Amino acid sequence: MKLERRHGWLLVGVAVWNFLTYAMFTRNLWSAHAEGEDRPTGYWVAHSVLIVVNVAIGVVLARLGVKALRRR
């Protein structure tokens, strides 16, 4: 599959959206934990794994998008 510039912009946009939403999610999760919200350990672990995986997906999408944008 050949990525064009328009695909690059889409991928970069989705990556930025992913970073912003998961930054807010991380902040909210951190605040809940700091305030002593009573949740099982599995809750904190599962949500932390979600954050790491989605940031990794964002990095992959951003790299693909930048690569597509650099093509002429």
From TrEMBL:
It comes from the Bacteria. Keywords: Membrane, Transmembrane, Transmembrane helix. InterPro entries: SCO4848-like. The keyword Membrane applies. The keyword Transmembrane applies. The chain crosses the membrane at residues 7-25, 45-66. Pfam families: SCO4848 (PF26606). This is Integral membrane protein. It comes from Nocardioides oceani. The lineage of its organism: Bacteria, Bacillati, Actinomycetota, Actinomycetes, Propionibacteriales.
